[in-house]
Amino acid sequence: MLHKRKAETFYVHKKIARQEAKKTKKMAAVCMDFGKNVSLPNITTNDVYYKHQLSMYSFNIHILSLQQSIFYVYNESIAKKGANEVASFIFHFIVNYLDDNVEELQIFCDSAGGQNKNYTIFRFIHYIVNNQIHGLKNIKITFPVRGHSYLECDKNVGLWKLKEKMETPKDFKSMIKNSRIKPSPFVVVSVSKQIVFNWTHLLSTIYNVRKCPFKTQPIKEIIASSTEPRQLKWRETYNGPMFSNAIKKPDKGLSKASTLKKGEFELPTRRYLGIF
């Protein structure tokens, strides 16, 4: 019973965030998740079973208040499915799709350790708000109870027409785009190596606390705020006490970041070589 109540609390928080985002332009709420891998060509021929197929990946960011959904689509030769990819897609979404008036962003996602729930992502959201990239001042990530992570992203993937004949990546992208008509078609972004950055390397050079100072597995909420230049706030329950830990030691002398002009920030190098 307690487990079910905790699971339900996650969905209640998501519902409240969606309602608040509808009331004000200064706040946005999204959920995000990787979709299922699809192997191409997807055709009804036995010969395909014995050949090496191309794996297609997708990462979905769903804006809860608008029901708008963006799919970042790429194949296994472009990038992987790790923390650098997640951070890069969030960054691209913030810069290209998030409303200019938004100051607070709430993210709901599963607890995949290698993708969402790790020190790279925690430092990344702190970096975004403390440089006020796109005017963001607060970012909160909420994680569900294990086994209860069914999100709008899963509903979106459930609309895919996987029985369609697909031979090329272009066919796969068209299938996603045409899988929904109302309230709006899915937006498909063709991922290239140029938008996938090595955030782990950059953040390791900026944040001098090398190891995460708290255990990541029990965390249910984590908050990064522009008013906390060295701290992250977190808690292990949805309504319990909030704790904080420093992820950055005080700067000694002239810091690297202080040489940048107001409104400027440093971008990481690309994670993968090549132009495609």
Defining traits:
21% strand, globular, ten-stranded mixed beta sheet, alpha/beta, 276 residues, 26% helix
Report on this model:
There is one protein chain. With 276 residues, this protein is of the alpha/beta class. The protein is 26% helix and 21% strand. It has 6 helices and 10 strands. Strands 1, 2, 3, 4, 5, 6, 7, 8, 9 and 10 form a 10-stranded mixed sheet that branches. A hairpin with a 5-residue loop joins strand 8 (221-225) and strand 9 (231-235). The model has no long low-confidence stretch (mean pLDDT 92).
Largest sheet report: 10 strands, mixed
Structural class: alpha/beta
Shape: globular
What is the terminal separation in angstroms? 50 Å
Rg is 19 Å
Secondary-structure blueprint:
Elements: H1 2-23, E1 27-34, E2 38-40, E3 54-63, E4 68-75, H2 83-96, E5 104-109, H3 119-130, E6 138-142, H4 152-158, H5 169-177, E7 187-190, H6 199-206, E8 221-225, E9 231-235, E10 243-246
Parallel strand pairs: 1-5, 4-7, 5-6
Antiparallel strand pairs: 1-3, 2-3, 3-4, 6-8, 8-9, 9-10
Concise description?
This protein has 276 residues and is an alpha/beta fold.
